[in-house]
Amino acid sequence: MPQLGLLHGRAWASLLGKLLRPPGAVCIGAVHSHSQDFDIAGQFDPMIPDAECLKIMCEILSGLQLGDFLIKMSWKDVRHEMVAKKGLAPEVADRIGDYVQCHGGVSLVEQMFQDPRLSQNKQALEGLGDLKLLFEYVTLFGIAEKISFDLSLARGLDYYTGVVYEAVLLPTPAQAEEEPLNVGSVAAGGRYDGLVGMFDPKGHKVPCVGLSIGVERIFSIVEQKMKTFGEKIRTTETQVFVASPQKNFLQERLKLIAELWDAGIKAELLYKNNPKLLTQLHYCENMGIPLVVIVGEQELKEGVIKLRSVASREEVAIKRENLVAEIQKRLSES
Fold this sequence. Notes:
Layout: H1 9-12, E1 35-41, H2 48-63, E2 69-75, H3 78-85, H4 90-97, E3 103-104, H5 106-114, H6 116-119, H7 122-140, E4 147-150, E5 163-169, E6 187-191, H8 195-198, E7 208-214, H9 215-228, E8 240-243, H10 250-262, E9 267-268, H11 277-287, E10 291-294, H12 297-302, E11 304-309, E12 315-319, H13 323-333
Parallel strand pairs: 2-4, 8-9, 8-10
Antiparallel strand pairs: 1-7, 2-5, 3-4, 5-6, 6-7, 10-11, 11-12
Helix pairs in contact: 2-7, 3-4, 5-7
């Protein structure tokens, strides 16, 4: 199972929270909360930053190993964009509407180029030209098979001004008979060239394009997959727990955990002077901590530490000077 923290460096270096997103924006069925954003702001040549956003989206979703996915791409509110904002005649926009039920790749864009009623309109040609250019770039990035031009897609947030896209997971044959996990899109984004200017007193326009990864939804999917395969969901990276069966052994536990920390081993203990051993062992089982080291009076006398496997409950006595090496060996084999 992939570690969710190990996403592409460019994505985790992006803007956190709702930066460049209007406060209180709500969009049912779209990624809008508990998300990780990536945005590119500035004046650049057409479709280059848009293509990189799609590439980053593909890298993240592929790296998370959630399954096969498809990124649907369209224009924002097709007919309204074409008539009210782009100045197209209604009959031209209606012709575009004939394509709303179609989806595909660059061949669909080429087909629209050949339509005489569209090819005679300057604005339509400019839009189609941008889409064709975008497909050229995503082909060079090696992700064209993950992109589908789908005019039926319409993002709900009103600040989008151009290309919009959403990523959805594709069901496997095995999942067809299972209860579907209705999480909607797991990533989404688009171009919003007018949003920044709304917050600038002088109205300076800053072209922007970005994407959001639905972290909360991805966690739901990962959790569901782990339950399906009977895997325990770990909420900690702790590798070793330091325990004692007797009272007044806090100092020994602290010395021991310091040794483990100094060796780069992820260890923890209960912040109590005299916790019960059963309480400590139950904590390890509940948290999925794989190993426990136990120090008590008998261990101190013999110069050993007990090393316990939480899964099998087997215990072995290890010489104190060999403990770190033995733990590292076991962790490398797990």
